[in-house]
Specification:
By secondary structure, the protein is of the alpha+beta class. The strands form 8 sheets. The protein has an 8-stranded mixed β-sheet, sandwiched between helices. The longest helix has 18 residues, at about 620-635. The protein is globular.
């Protein structure tokens, strides 16, 4: 559960991680069986399985009154204990701090001010640990070696910054470990739970690593770099001296390194991939060895440091190898594993692997009503941008079509959120729903998408609505040139940054797209930056360098703000927004909708009062996708 603080900084700047989609057309492959909308978007039967540290219980989330709640079951027993009964909002996430208790997070109406709660696994002694109004709780370290304590971050003292607290799970008492001076964006603890490292923003655009040998020592700055250079310590070496993590210092791609934290220097490169950033590194707490690192090409890939771990994956692959798989949880003694399988056509299943008996037992399918044989294949593709960049993308075709036979199809172009994130290969219910309704779907990792190195990422700086948008347009044109897309029936749809890209696509390419769907997207760069959450404000200087300064770059930001160019939008638009969105204020959607209505452009507008940055409640998802399906069906129906 250890969080990579430098990565947290960059992911915080990477504003909008979200997606969505929907549709229906009159003409689709004869082999396609139309599947009810609800089957794609209802809550999973069971998900988020974890194992207790002692390996005796497993837990999961399942629907109760249409909300995802936490349940516990003893291995080998039939009895199920329901731990939570939330009916207004699903539990956002949970974990086991020890074998007797579970901690979980929940917000209110999508405001993302998460509160921390705890409950014993026999459903006794519920405690609201951080029930503070307008305060966001972070989990900084689950302290696996200290069963009755965790480290949390709270912006209770100052809404802009998070202070670290040691929380006693038995008493609920909290001890503040350090007062954030205002520039610390992350904290790191050693294997003994001691606060040893801090990550600071310097002058708004540089980052520093601060270190101390013991908690009694003063902080010392050991390394300062531009935020464009990324040293991301993941955890201490097992003697608590150095750290393991990833770094792109002096290179384009992030690699796995051992880092001398006291002196701010790389000791050794442990693994590098020539084509992709290595994003994660893992270890065995029991055996005290590095186990593996992972990166994403078109799928997730692994490099093994440890023969035992490689052997473990080989054993699991032997039985479940028709699917991609991951280890989602493991007992403290590393004898009981929770395995999750998935593919591009299946949400997969959960299994328990008992190393002592060498048996793999299936627990449950995540969504047993989904028949993978009726789902569409996701094809990894590449194309060139107009200025020569290689763009990695995914093309999903309706069932019954191949890359050779797909011709003149209606298309939904679906740029991802972030924008400093990326699309990946796997089961996406929204994409599968679109494909089931007869659409081809193009998802592209435009410049700025993560995982492809520093140069590709920086190529997006101050390029919102410009070259970033051109990468999306170039993918659309690629589909047309290949004959896959019917040029008269192309829609653009996206969420978060993808919603912004939808609006800019309609502005820049009014003849290219027949319709657009904007889901919680930015429309005005000036008002957007004025309404960000308070804990983003220390990162504004980075935002200005990456996106644009409202004063110094006012002409640029006006040029790339869709609301100022509504005179160029002619295609019908559907907009969806959560009223409590803390990232993209509802004013962003209100502005564009009103401006277009004033010009007589067809706009449909859906607002959900109990949602934030994306719709999480099941009934709201159904409403959104039904409306989107009808909208796209009407706008992209085949011309007579």
């Amino acid at each position: 559960m250890k969080k990579n603080p430098i990565l947290i900084i960059m992911m915080t700047i990477g504003i909008f991680l979200l997606a969505a989609s929907c549709t229906n057309i009159e003409k689709k492959p004869m082999t396609a069986k139309q599947i009810p909308l609800e089957d794609f978007f209802k809550n999973p039967e069971k998900s988020s399985y974890q194992i207790s540290p002692d390996g005796n219980y497993y837990s999961y989330m399942a629907p109760y009154e249409k909300r995802m709640n936490i349940f516990v079951q003893k291995r080998g027993a039939e009895e199920v204990i329901q731990l939570t009964a939330e009916t207004d909002r699903s539990v956002a996430g949970y974990f086991w701090p020890n074998s007797e208790r579970i901690l979980y997070l929940k917000d209110t109406g999508g405001d993302e001010n998460f509160k921390l709660f705890g409950i014993n696994i026999d459903s006794t002694n519920p405690i609201a640990y951080t029930d503070f109004e307008g305060v966001r709780t972070q989990i900084l370290d689950d302290l696996p070696n200290i069963p009755n304590e965790v480290i949390i971050g709270l912006n209770k003292r100052n809404p802009q910054v998070f202070d670290p607290y040691r929380l006693n799970l038995k008493t609920g008492d909290m001890e503040m470990l350090a007062e954030n001076p205002g520039n610390i964006q992350g904290w790191m603890f050693d294997h003994d739970g001691k606060l040893r490292v801090a990550f600071a923003i310097v002058d708004g655009v540089n980052t520093s690593i601060l270190y101390r040998e013991t908690e009694a020592d003063e902080w010392q700055t050991v390394l300062t770099t531009s935020f464009k250079d990324n040293v991301s310590p993941a955890f201490f070496t097992f003697d608590n001296k150095n750290v393991y993590g990833t770094s792109n210092l002096g290179r384009d791609k992030s690699v796995v390194v051992e880092f001398d934290i006291a002196n701010g220097k790389e000791v050794e490169v442990l693994y590098e991939n020539p084509d992709y950033d290595v994003s994660n590194v893992f270890y065995s707490r029991k055996r005290k060895v590095l186990t593996s690192a992972s990166y994403t090409s078109h799928k997730r890939e692994r490099h093994f440091f440890d023969a035992d771990t490689e052997k473990l994956f080989a054993r699991i692959n032997k039985e479940l190898g028709n699917y991609e798989l991951g280890i989602s949880a493991v007992s403290d003694d590393e004898t009981v594993y929770i395995i999750r399988t998935y593919s591009d056509r299946s949400l997969g299943a959960y299994y328990i692997y008992d190393k002592n008996t060498d048996r793999i037992e299936k627990i449950t399918d995540v969504s047993p009503w989904i028949d993978e044989n009726e789902m569409a294949t996701v094809h990894p593709i590449t194309y060139k941008s107009r200025d020569g960049l290689k763009i990695h993308a995914y093309l999903t075709l309706p069932k019954g079509y191949t890359m050779e036979t797909a011709k003149n199809l209606p298309v939904v172009v679906n740029p991802h959120g972030g924008p400093w994130a990326r699309d990946g290969w796997g089961f996406n219910p929204e994409i599968q729903f679109l494909a089931n309704r007869g659409y081809a779907i193009l998802q592209m990792n435009f410049r700025g998408s993560t995982g492809y190195g520093k140069e590709f990422w920086q190529a997006s700086f101050k390029k919102w609505g410009l070259e970033m948008q051109d990468d999306i347009t170039d993918g659309t044109q690629w589909l047309i040139k290949k004959g896959i897309a019917d040029p008269e029936r192309i829609a653009i749809y996206g969420a978060s940054y993808g919603g912004y890209a939808t609006l800019m696509g309609l502005v820049k390419e009014p003849e290219l797209y027949a319709a657009g769907v904007d889901y919680v997207g930015v429309s005005n760069m000036f008002t957007f930056m004025k309404t960000i959450p308070p804990y983003w404000e220390p990162l504004l200087a980075m935002m200005y360098e990456m996106v644009g300064d409202p004063k110094a770059d006012s002409l640029l930001l006006r040029k790339v703000s869709p609301v100022y160019h509504v005179d160029k939008i002619t295609a019908p638009l559907f907009v969806a927004q959560g009223a409590n969105d803390p990232r993209v204020n509802i004013d962003e959607s209100d502005q564009i909708v009103q401006a277009l209505k004033d010009r007589g452009v067809v706009v449909e507008y859906m607002v959900k009062d109990n949602e934030g940055h994306g719709f999480h409640n099941e009934e709201n998802r159904f409403d959104f996708y039904r409306a989107m399906e009808a909208f796209l069906s009407k706008q992209l129906k085949e011309k007579e």
